[in-house]
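Lecture 7 notes: from sequence to structure.
We start with the chain below.
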Amino acid sequence: MGDLTAFILAGGKSTRMGTDKAFLQLEGHTLLERATEMARAVAGEVRVVGDPAKFANFGRAVEDVYPERGPLGGIHAALSTTSTELNLMLAVDLPFMEARFLAYLVSQARATGAVVTVPRAAGGFQPLCALYRREFASLAEQSLRAGRNKIDPLFTQVETRVLEEAELARLGFSAEIFRNLNTPEDFAQANQNTQRTQPK
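Predicted structure tokens for the same chain:
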């Protein structure tokens, strides 16, 4: 675990939710607490990517170098500060994620040596639940400097290990683990479903 740092991406504006998603509570714990606990199952160190003033009580926080640039800005900030080769990026609003999937993701990243190890499920890539090697920071910076904020197109420029949905299904992982919370309706539904999706 010493070669791996986990980063919780919590710097989004939560516009559609109407309140900061990181501090929404499910089963008595905030989404940030849940994500942090999940990440600690696979990583020796867990940091938050977001406003240091807001997240000071949750340990070390990392601020975007390129603010207002979406998740790619957060990934770049994380990789620019990390001291480890492997880096897990995990969105704060994935309450159905499973620790055993994160363990599989990490194992595949270690086995292949790919720069990016990313699932492709639930309709597309899941770059906010993926493993990045530190060298991806330079590619992210090039893209941000050029005014391009999209993450997925960068995967064609480096060695990428894609975990396809069929592979995940064979291993017993449902695409449901990638369902995130964007609206109050999503949150209400999550409250109804948490009994069967408690962190393992």
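Points to note: The chain has one domain: 4-196. The helical segments are 31-40, 52-55, 71-81, 99-112, 136-145, 165-170, 184-193.
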